[in-house]
Amino acid sequence: MLTQKQLSWKQERIEQVNRYLEKDKRVDFIDDALIEKLIAAPSILDRVKIAELLAKSKSLKGLSPEEAAYLMNIEDKQTWEEIFKTAMEVKLSVYGNRIVLFAPLYISDECVNDCVYCGYRSSNKEIKHQGLTDDELRAEIRAITGAGQKRIVAVYGEGPENDADYIAHSMNVIYSEKNGRGEIRRININAAPLFVEEYKTVKAAGIGTYQVFQETYSKSRYRQLHGTDNIKSIFNWRLFSQHRAQEAGISDVAIGALFGIYDWRFEVMGLLYHAADMDREFGVGSHTISFPRLNPALNTPFYTKNKYKVTDDDMRKIIAILRLSVPYTGLILTARETPELRHELIKLGVSQIDAGSNIAIGGYQKGRDASKEQFQLSDNRSLDDCISELVDEGYIPSFCTADYRCGRVGCEFMELAKSGNIKNLCIPNAVLTFEEYLLDYASPAVKVKGDKLLSDYVKFVRANYSETMAKNVDAYLARIKNGERDLYF
Ligand code: SAM
Ligand code: SF4
């Protein structure tokens, strides 16, 4: 139950938001009727059209939402195999064979909203609604960096305890906590939508990406799941979160939908229209897209009652269609999925995964605790175990944080990606950060096979990159072996 302070904060904020929206000139880009029509019927199998769309995808031109809808509704199994294969090719040609790793860090589950699917909802009496103290936060950071992580997504509920000033404060605490050679070099944020001035406060603290998930793009479904007197009830406030963040100068923003609360096809369409509208206004779409799937949460009966279940096969289709449609956008796959399925889904075009995750408040030090978790994770392996599997599959794990620290964000990042040049930086930076991991944190078994993989990638750089880049990689690796850290291109 909410405290008096939380109740009055919430009421005041709802009024502020409504006053803001009355003056906001942005036009809703989600046409529910059009999307429902586009996804309504199975597509007629037209091999010529399919070949054209796959060729367009391979040339990295992306697909329009209408073209994506056509492919999404194909029922022919062989065509899907071709779509999956094309998605893998697209991922390889934009990013190469590297996977960026990060850890989620849940800082506060105090929340004034009451989303029916979420364990942290205010009416859930079985959750200990609480936030970390600064000392607890530092201890969590030491536990995370002690495993070798360099990038986190910090997660907050919405409320007076988690306003923009607190988010900026907690970011300062995180960045300043050093743990031997360990440190967090990039903080992404997953938190409630903010006003432009508030986003500026968070930007000043050194943000990587600001993520807000729309949950569902269907307005009628959104209304059913978020109540009528919550801040989160206001669909348009959330829909334009990323636009306001970009207006505030945050160049890397991220969208997502919670798959499994409405028809997955509608959500894919919503994500594509969302990215397109940001591109129209700011010249750059979403930096990343997340496609979390609904998982069970403590005392949350919605999970079992809900009729929009998304199957593993649907997940394959979701990822592949996104990969073809927005080739330059990072795709994030989380530990909501099982290790076995992650193993398979990564191949379809994923560029980032979380690993060694714990989503209980204080969980990295104290272990799992359902009464402090937003939902249950399905992949509870350690970072080292996840890396071990990536290495076996030939992926180079990356803890790279170079882009935003070199100012390669927003449009500039997209230009580099589109010209094929981002791959030229991604692989060398992956090599350098993976070497740090192998020297400082890897288990003996991962060190042995990781060293072998690393030397293969160094050979690859020598054979395929400019002479200068090859020499620089060699020189930086020698300096890292000599004890220097945090070298990047
Ligand atoms: N309170 C902020 C908000 O809602 O924007 C922060 C996000 S919340 C802590 C992170 C995301 O987790 C939500 O946006 C939602 O998509 C997802 N989520 C919520 N309940 C979930 C569940 N039961 N299973 C999987 N993901 C869930
Ligand atoms: Fe709060 Fe976010 Fe959970 Fe909704 S999804 S109850 S806003 S923490």
* CATH-derived topology of the largest domain: TIM Barrel
Radius of gyration: 22 Å
Mean pLDDT: 95
Poorly predicted regions: none
CATH architecture name of the largest domain = Alpha-Beta Barrel
CATH homologous superfamily name of the largest domain?
Aldolase class I
Query: What is the CATH class designation of the largest domain?
Result: Alpha Beta
What composes the largest sheet?
8 strands, parallel, barrel
Into how many domains do the coordinates divide? 2
Report the strand count: 9
Instruction: Going across the biggest sheet, name each strand in turn.
Output: 1-2-3-4-5-6-7-8
Number of helical segments with 4 or more residues? 22
